[in-house]
C-alpha cells in the first residue's frame, strides 16, 4: 500500500487540449439545446443570478455589521422587492396609460426611419452615377413596407405573446435570488460532502473558479452597462437628443445581446431622433458616429477591462460560440452562450485533470479498498 | 479557555478543543462553523500529497494524522498531529504547494476550511481572520521551537 516512491507529486497534469475544447463545445451545445426546451425557467434563473451578484455585496455588508447571514439575505431581498414594486407599479400604470398612443408612435418611428433612409439613398444616387442605375430610391419604400409587414406578422405578435407568457415566470427571479443568497453556501457544502476525499481539494478549486468566473462576468456586465449608459447618455445629451439617459440605458441593456444588440440599440436611438423633428440630419449622423465610437471603446477598452478578464477566452473561440449560440437557441443563446461556455470549460478542464491524474485516481481506488476492508473487518470466517 | 458553542445540529462538533478557534467568541464561532467541511479518513488514507496545490487547511477532531516526506511513512516522519491541532496551514498562509505528505495515522475525523473561505474572512470578518491567524502563528512558533530547540535561546 505504499503511496509513492518518495518523489513529490505534481498536481498540475497538462493543460486544456483539443479534446477538452471539443467536449466544451459539445456540452455547451447540448446544454443550449436542452435549455431551449425550458426557456421559461432559464430566463428567470439567469436574471436571478444577475440579481444574486448585485445583492451579494449588500448581504456581506450586513453580515460584517453583525447580522446573521440568513437575516441579511432576507433583509436585502425584502428591501429589493419593495423597491422593485415601488418602481414597477407606477411604470406599468404609465405603460397601460400610454399603450393606445404606443402603436401610433411605433409606426411614426418606422415611417420616419424610412424617410431618413430614402433621403440618404437619394443623396447617394445624386452623388454616385452607378447607384442611380440601381434606382434604389424608388424600390426601397415598397420593399421596406413588405418586409416591415411580414416582420410584424411573423415575429412581433409571437414576441408579444411570448413576453406576456413569460411575465409570471419572471416573478420567479427575485424569489430564486433570495434562495441563492440564503442557501447558496449550504447547497455547495452538500455538494462537496458527496465528493470523495481524493478529489476534495480539486473540487474546492473548481467551485472557487466557477464562482469567480460567474461573479466577474455578471458584475463586469453590470459595470459595462453603467459605463455604456454614461458614455452614450453624455454624448446624446451633448447632441441635444431628448431623453438621452433613458435611450442610453435602453441601448446599453440591449448590448447584452452580442453583435445584434448594439445594432438594434443604434437603430432605436436613430428612429427616435428622426421622429423628433427638432434635430437636423447632421445630428442623426453624429448619433450614429457616437454609437460607432462607443462600440469601438467597448471592444478595445471597456470589455477587456470588465468582462474580458472573467472569461479569458480567445476571440476566435468567442465568435464561434456566438454563432453556435445564435444558431441553436436564438437571441437567448447569444446572451448566455459565453458565460455558459466559460463555466462548462472550467468544469470540463477540472474533470479532465482529475481523470488524467493517475495519482489522484490511484488514491481514490486505495481509499475505496481501505473503506471496504474497514467495513469487512469483523466479517471473516 | 472554554468556548460556549450554540447547540446546533448543523454545526461541526469537537471544535471547542481546537486552539485556532480558542480566541473566538460564540458569535464568531458560529460564523466559522458555517464555513467548515467535515471529512472522514480511514487509517493509511492519503489526505494530501507533497507538491500538491493547497486549497484547504485542516483541523483534527479525532484520530491522528502523520506528516511525512512523500511516501516515506516510516523513515522520514516529520510530525504526528493529534486532536485539536491544525495542519496544512503553511501552504495556505504562504500560497505555496504542499511541503509534505499528510496521511491518516488512525481513522480520523477532520474539519477543513477552504483557502477561499479563509481569504474571504479577511474581507468579511477581519476580526475573526486576525484572531485565527494569530493563533496559527503562535502554533507555528511553538512547533518551530520544539523542532529546533535553538530558538528559545535566541532573543526573538
Instruction: Give the strand content of chain B.
Output: 15-25%
N-end to C-end Cα span of chain B: 26 Å
Give the overall form of chain A. elongated
Helix content percent band of chain A: over 70%
Written overview of the protein:
The complex is a heterodimer of chains A (381) and B (156). Chain A has 13 helices and no strands. Chain A has 381 residues and is mainly alpha-helical. In chain A, helix 8 (244-254) runs antiparallel to helix 9 and helix 9 runs antiparallel to helix 10 (281-305). The longest helix of chain A has 59 residues, at 69-127. Chain A is elongated, with a radius of gyration of 27 Å. Chain B is of the alpha+beta class and 156 residues long. The chains are: A mainly alpha (381), B alpha+beta (156). The A-B interface holds A 1-12, 60, 63-64, 66, 69, 185, 189, 192-193, 197-198, 200-202, 204-205, 207-208, 359, 363, 366-367, 370-371, 374 and B 27, 34-35, 37-39, 41-56, 69-72, 97, 101, 103, 107, 112, 114-116, 123-125.
Summarize the structure.
The complex is a heterodimer of chains A (381) and B (156). Chain A is mostly helical and 381 residues long.
Would you spell out the secondary-structure blueprint of this structure?
The complex is a heterodimer of chains A (381) and B (156).
Chain A: H1 18-36, H2 39-64, H3 69-127, H4 129-134, H5 136-170, H6 172-193, H7 200-238, H8 244-254, H9 260-275, H10 281-305, H11 308-311, H12 315-356, H13 358-376
Helix pairs in contact in A: 1-12, 2-3, 2-6, 2-7, 3-5, 3-6, 3-9, 7-8, 7-10, 7-12, 8-9, 9-10
Chain B: H1 26-33, E1 37-41, E2 46-48, E3 56-62, E4 65-68, E5 77-81, E6 86-87, H2 89-94, E7 101-104, E8 108-114, H3 115-124, H4 126-148
Antiparallel strand pairs in B: 1-8, 2-7, 3-6, 3-8, 4-5, 4-7
Helix pairs in contact in B: 3-4
Structural features:
heterodimer; A: 381 residues; mainly alpha; 13 helices; 0% strand; elongated; disordered N terminus; B: 156 residues; alpha+beta; 4-stranded antiparallel β-sheet; 4 helices
Amino acid at each position: 500500500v505504499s503511496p509513492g516512491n518518495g518523489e513529490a507529486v505534481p498536481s498540475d497534469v497538462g493543460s486544456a487540449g483539443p479534446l477538452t475544447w471539443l467536449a466544451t463545445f459539445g456540452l455547451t451545445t447540448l446544454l443550449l439545446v436542452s435549455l431551449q426546451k425550458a426557456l421559461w425557467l432559464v430566463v428567470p434563473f439567469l436574471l436571478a443570478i444577475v440579481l444574486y451578484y448585485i445583492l451579494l455585496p449588500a448581504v456581506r455588508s450586513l453580515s460584517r455589521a453583525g447580522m446573521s447571514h440568513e437575516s441579511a439575505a432576507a433583509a436585502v431581498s425584502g428591501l429589493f422587492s419593495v423597491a422593485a414594486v415601488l418602481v414597477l407599479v407606477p411604470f406599468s400604470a404609465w405603460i397601460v396609460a400610454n399603450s393606445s398612443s404606443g402603436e401610433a408612435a411605433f409606426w411614426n418611428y418606422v415611417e420616419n426611419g424610412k424617410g431618413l433612409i430614402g433621403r440618404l439613398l437619394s443623396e447617394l444616387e445624386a452623388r454616385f452615377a452607378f447607384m442611380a442605375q440601381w434606382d434604389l430610391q424608388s424600390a426601397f419604400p415598397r420593399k421596406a413596407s413588405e418586409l416591415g409587414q411580414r416582420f410584424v406578422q411573423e415575429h412581433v405578435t409571437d414576441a408579444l405573446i411570448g413576453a406576456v407568457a413569460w411575465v409570471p415566470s419572471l416573478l420567479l427571479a427575485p424569489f430564486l435570488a433570495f434562495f441563492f443568497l440564503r442557501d447558496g453556501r449550504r447547497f455547495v457544502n452538500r455538494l462537496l460532502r458527496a465528493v470523495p476525499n481524493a478529489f476534495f481539494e480539486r473540487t474546492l478549486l473548481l467551485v472557487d473558479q466557477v464562482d469567480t468566473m460567474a461573479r466577474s462576468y455578471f458584475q463586469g456586465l453590470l459595470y459595462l452597462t453603467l459605463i455604456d449608459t454614461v458614455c452614450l447618455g453624455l454624448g446624446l445629451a451633448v447632441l441635444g437628443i431628448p431623453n438621452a439617459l433613458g435611450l442610453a440605458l435602453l441601448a446599453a441593456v440591449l448590448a447584452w445581446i452580442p453583435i445584434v444588440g448594439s445594432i438594434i440599440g443604434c437603430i432605436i436611438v436613430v428612429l427616435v431622433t428622426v421622429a423628433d423633428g427638432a434635430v437636423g440630419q447632421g445630428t442623426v449622423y453624429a448619433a450614429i458616429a457616437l454609437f460607432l465610437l462607443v462600440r469601438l471603446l467597448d471592444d478595445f477598452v471597456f470589455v477587456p477591462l470588465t468582462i474580458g478578464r472573467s472569461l479569458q477566452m480567445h476571440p476566435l473561440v468567442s465568435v464561434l460560440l456566438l454563432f453556435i449560440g445564435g444558431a441553436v437557441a436564438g437571441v437567448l443563446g447569444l446572451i448566455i452562450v459565453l458565460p455558459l461556455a466559460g463555466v462548462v470549460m472550467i468544469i470540463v478542464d477540472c474533470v479532465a485533470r482529475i481523470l488524467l491524474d493517475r495519482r489522484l485516481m490511484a488514491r481514490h481506488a486505495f481509499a475505496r479498498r481501505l473503506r471496504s476492508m474497514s467495513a469487512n473487518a469483523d466479517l471473516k470466517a | 479557555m472554554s468556548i460556549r458553542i450554540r447547540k446546533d445540529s448543523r454545526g461541526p462538533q469537537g471544535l471547542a478543543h481546537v486552539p485556532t478557534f480558542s480566541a473566538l467568541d460564540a458569535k464568531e464561532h458560529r460564523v466559522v462553523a458555517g464555513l467548515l467541511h467535515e471529512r472522514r479518513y480511514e487509517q493509511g488514507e492519503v489526505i494530501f500529497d507533497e507538491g500538491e496545490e493547497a486549497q484547504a487547511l485542516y483541523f483534527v477532531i479525532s484520530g491522528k494524522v502523520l506528516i511525512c516526506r512523500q511516501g516515506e511513512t516510516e523513515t522520514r516522519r516529520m510530525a504526528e498531529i493529534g486532536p485539536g491541532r491544525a495542519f496544512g496551514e503553511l501552504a495556505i498562509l504562504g500560497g505555496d504547494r504542499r511541503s509534505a505528505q499528510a496521511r491518516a495515522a488512525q481513522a480520523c475525523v477532520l474539519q477543513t476550511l477552504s483557502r477561499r473561505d479563509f481569504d474571504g474572512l479577511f474581507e468579511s470578518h477581519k476580526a475573526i481572520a486576525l484572531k485565527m491567524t494569530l493563533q496559527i502563528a503562535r502554533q507555528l512558533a511553538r512547533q518551530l521551537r520544539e523542532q529546533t530547540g535553538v530558538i528559545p535561546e535566541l532573543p526573538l
